Amino acid sequence: MNTIHGRVFTNTLMIDGAGYKWTSSKQSLEKMPSKTKGEFYASAYGNPGDGLARITLIEATKIVFPISDIKLSKGNLDKAFTPDNRTYYVELDSEDTSVNIELEMADINAIVKEGSDGEIVIHSGKHEHKIEVTGTDGTDYEYTIIFLRPASSYQYLKSIEIAGKEIDGFLPEKLNYTVELPYNADEITLIEGIKARPDQEIKGNDTYDISFVQKMIILDVKSEDKLTTTRYTIMVKKEDTTKLKACEIEKYDFGKNFQSDKYEYEYEVTTGVISLKFLTTPYNPECKVQVKGAGYIKEGKNPVTITVSKEGLEDTVYKITIIKGENLGEIAYDYDYTGDYQTFVAPAVGYYKFECWGAQGAGSAESGRGGYTSGTIKLNEGDTFYIYVGGKNVYGGWNGGGTSSYRYGGGGATDIRLVKGTWNDEEGLKSRVMVAGGGRRSLR
Known about the structure:
The chain is mainly beta and 444 residues long. The chain has one helix spanning 426-430; strands at 3-4, 7-8, 20-22, 26-29, 67-72, 87-91, 98-105, 111-112, 118-121, 125-134, 140-149, 159-162, 165-166, 176-181, 188-194, 201-203, 206-209, 215-222, 229-238, 244-249, 264-269, 278-282, 288-292, 300-309, 316-324, 342-345, 350-357, 372-379, 384-388, 414-417, 432-436. It starts with a strand and ends in an 8-residue tail after the last strand.
C-alpha cells in the first residue's frame, strides 16, 4: 500500500481491465466506476477510451493551532500574534533582564515543552527564545521570539557570598567589607560575587585558603556595556580561638567522640596501661598546648587536663578523667588442638608469658612425648599472634609430625607465629617466635 508523507491510503480498490478485483491476488468480478461521476460501466470490463484522474475533497479538516496568544510581562511582540506566524521580535530596555512568558492555549491538551514559558533570563544583544508545543494530534509547533536588549551600564553586584551565604550588611554600592568567619569554617572557602545583570563579567570568584590571619580578596565587576569596572574589597579571616580541632589518645579510640565545645570527659582504659600519649590539634596552629596528668596512670580515677593558650585570648581547658580498673591478676588464654591456626590479640599493655607443648607421637606408650618451651614478652594492646597447636595422629600429627609408610607417625609441633597461613607456609614458618617440637613415633 502506497504512502504520501508518511500517511497511508485507506479504503483502496483495484480492478483490472478484465473487470477483476485485486488484493494480493485476483478476486471476484467487480463493476468499474465510470469517468462520469456517480455511474458505473455497464459491462464488467474496464475503462474504454482515454484515461482520467480525479481528486475529490470529501471532508475538510480544520487545523487547530495549540496556542491562541502569547503575552509578555515586558515589551511587546512586533506584530499581533497569529498561530501561523512563527517568528516575532521584541524590543526591551537595557534593565529588562528577565521576562515572564504566558501562553494562552487553544488546545488545552497540548504539551508545552519545559522552559518554553514562565520567567526567563534575557541576555544583552540579540537573544532568541524558543517556544515548543506538541498538539493533541501529535503535530509539533515551534515559535521563536527574538528579544533585543541593549547592554546595561549597571556596574554593581547583586550580592557577595562566602561558602554560599550572603555576607552580612551587603549593599550594592558599598565596596569595602570586613568579614570574620567562625573558627571552625572550612579552610578552603568559596568566595564569589553574584551578578546583578546576566552579562556582567566578574574577576576574583574562586576558592581561597582562609586562616586566622586576615586576607584581602578583590572582586572586580565589569558592566555589560564594558564601559565601567567596580572593585569590591573583602578583608576576611577566621575568628581566633584556643579550642582544639582534634584530640586523640595514641592507640585508643578516644578521638572519635571528641568535640571542640565539650570540655569534660570520662574514658576507661585497660589495667595494663601505665601512661598515655595525647595527640592534639588546635584550630589555630599558633596556640600552645599543655597536657598534665597523663604521664602515669594509676588504678582508679586519673584527672588529665589539657590547656590551650594563645597570647591575647582566653585559655581553653579540657578535663579528661581516665578511669583504670583494678588489676585483675593473671589471665590465661588456652588454645587446644583444632587442626588449624588460632589467633591471639593482646587485650592490654603488659607482660605476657608464652608457653608451648608439642604433641606426642603415635603408637604404644613408648612413643616420644611432645616438647615444651616458654618465655616472657612485653606487648602493646592489639599486638597479634597466630597459634599452631600440634596434633597426634596415627600417620603423622598436624603441624609437621613425621609420617611413616609402616604404621605410626610423629607428633606435631606447637608454635607461635607473626604471619598466618597454612601450617607449612614458608613465610609463616620464618615468622615463628616460639616452637615446642613433637614426639617421635613408637618403634613397635
